[in-house]
Amino acid sequence: MSTPHHILLVEDDAKLGKEIKTLLEEKEFQVTWFTSGSEAQWIDVEKFSLAILDLMLPGAHGFDLLKTYRKTSEIPIIILTARQDSFDKLRGFELGGDDYMTKPFWPEELVVRVQARLRRPNLSNDEHNLYAGPITLNTETRQVTLNQSPLDLTRVEFDILHELVRRKNMAVTRRQLVERALPEETEGGERTLDVHISRIRKKLGESSDILATVWGIGYKFTDA
Questions:
Q1: Is domain 129-221 given the CATH code 1.10.10.10 in the classification?
Q2: Residue 23 class from Cβ within 10 Å (0-12 exposed, 13-18 middle, 19+ buried)?
Q3: Pair 169, 220: CB distance under 8 Å
Q4: Residue 3, class by beta-carbon neighbours within 10 Å (0-12 exposed, 13-18 middle, 19+ buried)?
Q5: Strand spans (E) along 156-210
């Protein structure tokens, strides 16, 4: 019998939190629920398979928790917020969020998103290999293959592709790619990033459509 996925839930709304926890447990997930940011700030997030994180929390803001969690873990994180402001959505993606739901929402939809996210993890069973469609990327040797043939990439192109492949099927903002993949001394910022993206697409050839533009946000790498 397989071990159930352990879900971290950080939600201060007692009614909503209880409903989410009950629905997840009905689907045989194990759930640990915190009602304040201060309670959840220093936990070992690596013990969990996925986190559901509200933004407006007593004790510590959800963005602060997200930044803390991303220092040590790449587990999927679904953000919840009552604000309609698109800034929250962009900031959440920049800090490493994987999905986003605006309140009010049907808790049943959240459970479906949790199930879907856990069916397609970012990492393969190989310790150093990441897979996305025809791409295999080895984080130890820094080698990339396309349809099992070597793909010749510069250091910066590899770093950009690595950021996209490890978060495949999720939008990565242009700002996040600039901060994580481009050298600090690089001039031009997002304009320079766009040039590198164009070069990567040319090297992908007929498979270039797997590197998609997400208008208003950035880019994503798909499994197509």
A1: yes
A2: middle
A3: yes
A4: exposed
A5: 172-173
Structurally, what CATH architecture does the domain formed by 6-119 represent?
3-Layer(aba) Sandwich (3.40)
Give the 3-state secondary structure of 52-105: EEECCCCCCCHHHHHHHHHCCCCCCEEEEECCCCHHHHHHHHHCCCCEEEECCC
Chain Cα centroid distance, residue 70: 10
Q: How far apart are CA 151 and CA 64, in angstroms?
A: 38
Q: CB of 118 within 8 A of CB of 110?
A: no
- Is residue 124's pLDDT more than 90? no
pTM of the model: 0.61
Q: What is the pLDDT of residues 156-185, one digit of tens each?
A: 999 999 989 888 888 888 888 988 888 765
Q: Does 13 score more than 50 pLDDT?
A: yes
221's tokens? 């790498």
